[in-house]
Amino acid sequence: DFDSVVTVPDSHAWPISDGFESNDWLSIPTIDLKDPDAAKLIGHACETWGVFQVVNHDIPLNLLDEVESEARQLFSLPTTQKLKALRSPGGVTGYGLARISSFFNKFMWHEGFTIIGSPLDHARELWPNDYQKFCDIMVDGQKKMEELAITIMHNILEYLAVSEEEMKWLGSPGVASTALQLNSYPLCPDPNRAIGLAPHTDNSLFTILHQRISGLQIFKEGVGWGFVQPVTGALVVNVGDLLHILSNARFPSVVHRVVMKEAKQRFSVAFFYSPPADFNLDPLGLSFGQIPLYRSVTVAEYFGRKAKDLEKHLLRLEFSGE
Ligand code: AKG
User: What is the pTM for the complete model shown?
Assistant: First the structure.
């Protein structure tokens, strides 16, 4: 039964209209990737929080600055120009609204730009005479993010006692399914009435996020919503649906959202990391006698399922005229 696989995004149970009043910082762990105990620390953080921050991650801070500065330039283009790179209906790359398969029936205070593979075609539309710098920086950003994702994945497999033989694709950079998402949350005149991104979980194994200004909140059972405090130079890593399945639900796929906390435009850069589309994902690292909670699912099948939820969500938006 496919539905037994998709137990994670039970979005109707998520608290979405509790106001955005929570101002608490959550004490999620910050982990030094060069710590000899990194695997244990990462695994433990995934288990207890579903999210952590990493420092000493080898992504140059000036590269993160450059990615953000390019994002700033992109989103400050006139709307008519940005619409030239509009994501096609049913497409996944380019400029557009947040693609969130939750049941949130309002537009969000957000604009995004999604890159999978080369950004060249869209960049040419945006800056017909001057697209090369944007492309070079984004390609560099994707490459460095993927290297970091591979390191994090090795640590997670070690913690789960999963043989790397099970993940042969991990040894070949460039074969994973990845996407780089630039997010902009424009200055909001009435932040208490707007949400940046509605509550959602990510499809990915995990997502690596750079935020300079606060706004990201996660929902923790028994605690509620709280902010992930920006730490200079650190990157946020959150568990997604596929790692939840792979870990046989040991790791929660963390429900998160963005609220408009500060009176400034906010940018974030998210890198979604998943196995190749045809990879068959099973719960792994089970101890003797432990029952798998999920059936095998290919990455493509899982993404397809989430995309169908999204279509329903968009239809609802159209019908409600919002
Ligand atoms: C996403 O792109 O899916 C996010 O959740 C972005 C979160 C953020 O902007 O902090």
Answer: 0.91
If you search the block for the tokens 């105990």, which residue do you land on?
37
Q: CB of 113 within 8 A of CB of 97?
A: no
Q: Token pair of 59, please?
A: 């992504």
Protein residue with its CA nearest to atom 10 in ligand 1: 216
Q: Is the CB of 41 under 6 A from ligand 1?
A: no
Catalytic residue numbers, as ranges: 266
Q: Decide: helix, strand or coil at residue 298.
A: strand
- What tokens appear for 322 in the block? 């919002």
pLDDT at 107 over 60: yes
How far apart, in whole angstroms, are the C-alpha atoms of residue 279 and residue 286? 19
Q: Which residues pair with 206 in a beta bridge?
A: 239, 273
ipTM higher than the 0.95 cut: yes
Q: For the chain, what is the largest distance between any 2 Cα atoms, rounded to a whole number of angstroms?
A: 62
Among the listed residues 262, 273, 268, the one whose alpha carbon sits nearest the alpha carbon of residue 209: 268
Sign of CA dihedral 157, 159, 162, 165: positive
